[in-house]
Design a protein that fits this description.
With 174 residues, this protein is an all-beta fold. It has one domain (2-170). Helices cover 0% and strands 39% of the residues. It is built from no helices and 9 strands. A 7-stranded antiparallel β-sheet has the order 1-2-5-6-7-8-9, with no helix packed on it. β1 and β2 (12-21) form a beta hairpin.
Length: 174
Amino acid sequence: MAKRFYLSQFGYSDVIVEGGYIFGQVPFPLLSIHRANQSYSYQIQAYNLMNFLEFVSDQYASINIDHCFNGFTFNKLPLIKHTKLREYATVKVLYGKVRDENAPQLNRELLAFPAYATGLPTTHSLDRKPYVEASVGMGNLFKFFRVDVVKRLTYLENPGVSELGIRGRFKFDF
């Protein structure tokens, strides 16, 4: 579900709520593999600091709130006001789990989660806590470019993850 909320002079928020449930016993590749982004482009629907195949679930819920302040702060600064820059803030939360019937460590007849050569797993479930990332950015650079600084707030102990990143996005509004 997606909905835009207008907050008068404070701009607007785009809220996306998503959920899923997989019935029955399925092997690892058929679980919900959450959308990750390892490029430098900022993707609204993906988790921008999550590695590919890092998290899977057979039941999950997520919320993505992308707020545009519509120049609330920048329009009050004399020299910056004429550039028509826009401020953005985003938070993305994903929570899910893998039921015992689909967990390869409990059921040996299922495919095992991928692992490094050392045996350390590369794929995890979200049983302990939700995955959360937040970003702040500025848009309308050259009328079509947005730059965000993204911060990963949970699961920082997983191997090979980035805690902080800078992402850019092209968007043409006519």
